[in-house]
Design goal:
2 domains; Glucose Permease (Domain IIA); 25% helix; alpha+beta; three-stranded mixed β-sheet; single chain
Length: 340
């Protein structure tokens, strides 16, 4: 496929769950919020969310809210200038900046919490969806929902139950570089995850495929942390697409979508609208978007659009949900089936 284009396409009509052997829900009915959210997404994916899901605000409002650290920095600078220097800021600035900051705070924004109706009803965590693992080989988990939810500190962009995984090499000459002081950045080839195959976790339809963004050097060092956070702030202002870097979103059916982020440039082997089978090679692990080193960010969500999606718990068949720092091994499909 042409990986230099961003392609989108509507998913095909959902098949009965029996026809999708790769994904299976945990026992018990899905939470009411998820069922309603999926219905709302099916009824009108681009305009409004349904079933009490997080509401969508205008892109301008979201950009203003993501820039809050800048506004508060301006307010702090203004206070310092007025209090600690002989300079006097103009009255319009002294009054205007605080009013502007308060106005931004009062603007309606996207909630990072569960919907109020669900909190009031005491709704628990939704049922986990069991899928195949997205990789094979030896890996370690970071930012895992097995340790805390939301796993990445926020529920925005459907990340409540997201997980990051990094490859661990058995070759002593190609061990994953440790976080430290030097060198500040490393080439991606130093990391065993870079270029590793990424697999479909279920029979699914590709909803979105982005593969043209460049891989950057690692940021897994103390000197690189500040540039990393500044880059992350700028990417967050631009939206989830820039945070995810090259990414794929699959429709697994039954109102569940899988997102794969930080994929390698020009490695996508599928395009939007294409049907894939569980275990099919989709792309390669890369280091694009908001990433400190080559790794795979994986999450399930209840809508194809991260802006309005809520996270869905996952469970990988044969692995479960690995905890932070836990190393796990996934055999190739032929080995799992006992074939030579």
């Amino acid at each position: 496929m042409d990986a230099n284009r961003v392609t989108t396409g509507p998913p095909t009509a959902e098949q009965p769950e029996a026809e999708r052997p790769g994904a299976r829900r945990g026992a018990g009915p899905p939470a009411a919020g998820r069922a309603a959210g999926a219905a709302g997404a099916d009824a009108g994916r681009g305009s409004r969310t349904g079933g009490g899901g997080p509401g969508r605000t205008g892109p301008g409002v979201e950009a203003l809210k993501r820039l809050r650290p800048v506004w508060y920095g301006m307010l702090a600078l203004l206070i310092l200038v007025n209090e600690l220097t002989p300079l006097d800021a103009p009255s319009w600035l002294t009054l205007g900046v605080p009013v502007f900051v308060i106005a931004v705070e009062l603007l309606p924004g996207r909630s990072r919490r569960l919907p109020k109706a669900e909190r009031a009803a005491g709704a628990g965590e939704p049922d986990a969806v069991e899928t195949e693992p997205p990789v094979t080989g030896r890996w370690s988990a970071l930012n895992s929902p097995a340790d805390k939810v939301p796993s990445h500190g926020v529920r925005t962009y459907g990340q409540a139950y997201a997980i990051d995984i990094v490859a661990e090499s058995g070759d002593p000459d190609r061990k994953r570089p440790a976080f430290g002081w030097w060198p500040p950045v490393r080439p991606n080839r130093d990391f065993p995850a870079f270029g590793a195959p990424v697999l479909a976790v279920a029979d699914a339809t590709v909803v979105r495929a982005v593969g043209s963004r460049r891989d950057h050097y690692s940021r897994n060092s103390w000197p690189a942390l500040l540039p990393f956070f500044l880059e992350g702030f700028a990417r967050d202002v631009a939206g989830p697409g820039r945070l995810f870097g090259n990414h794929l979103i699959l429709d697994l059916g039954d109102g569940t979508y899988a997102a794969y982020a930080h994929l390698r440039k020009d490695s996508l082997a599928v395009r939007a609208g294409e049907r894939v089978r569980a275990g099919q090679r989709l792309a390669e692990v890369g280091n694009t978007g908001n990433s400190t080193e080559p790794h795979l960010h994986f999450q399930l969500m209840d809508r194809p659009e991260p802006h309005t999606a809520r996270g869905v718990p996952f469970r990988w068949r044969g692995v479960g949900v690995p905890a932070n720092g836990e190393t796990f091994t996934v055999a190739a499909a032929g080995e799992r089936q006992g074939t030579p």
